[in-house]
Structure prediction request, 324 residues.
Amino acid sequence: RVEFGLAQITIDHYGIFFNKFMDEFRGFRINEIERVMLREFLEGQSDNAKMTMTIQLKSFFNFCAGKNNPYFNENRRWINESPVNWYIRPKKRMTTDVLSFDNIIDVLKVCSEKHIKSFNLTNGDIERLKSGKTSYRRFNDEKILYYIFRLFGCMRMSEYLRLIEIGGYDIANNEFIDLDRERIVFTNEMVGKGNQTKLRNEYIVREFKPIHPTFMSWLKWAVKYDIQLRPPKGEQKEVELINVCKMENLTKQNILRHTAITYHVQKFGVITNTANVAGTSYKMIEKHYLSLTTKLDDSLNWYDFDVNKAIQMDVLKGYSKLIG
Prediction:
């Protein structure tokens, strides 16, 4: 991991792939595996897994053929060439949808109203909660913080997961979140690409700055009440979002990022700035986001939706006074 600059989540994905690969080709040497065998192996996978596994196969066999392989010896080749040399057909792009401000509030209110039994608490946990000896409000607040962070941060799910995996769950101590300088940095270990500026022993690929005052109010709330950044949990992740998308007939895939980027463009009106903070290109935003039909009021309401407004709207439960 250290030598090749890979995050743990990437290692985990390749681990899942190699388990399947080993089950299929355990009796073969690498140079005995042929193109037609790999084709048959992929045919046995689900449609969603085929493209991902094709890319993983291509990377693995290119490595075996010498690409970026420090252990490769020209005089004693592992394999002469990669058998995975076919064109990878891109997936058909799905509809790009955006959540309205009311949709977001619906998602957050579901998070805030979830019953404590949904967190798999024991009877003893529930009794301690009822007696006031402990509080499980944290679970609801962490879910709310997850959506807030994704919708203000303009980041991909993979980047969010690496931010907390590498940087830590605690916002105050996360090495990528700098509240004093009002910025979030993305390093090469988080995204693995981009123009790099040296920072300590890592490299900054891009910076999200300045953090908008509304977003800062949420981060300060999280620090004050020790609300941590967590990945979505459960058998069906983001179930609150899934249900709202079903009711509104919206395509859920990447909808948090689509919404975040669209609102950012509408609020600030500078495409290059949005492209920089979101880690995408000017042309990508121009092609996929400027044509989306959303109300300007939605983005303005979102960037006005700070912690105090959330308390007033009864999205945040259990806070009896406004937070300064």
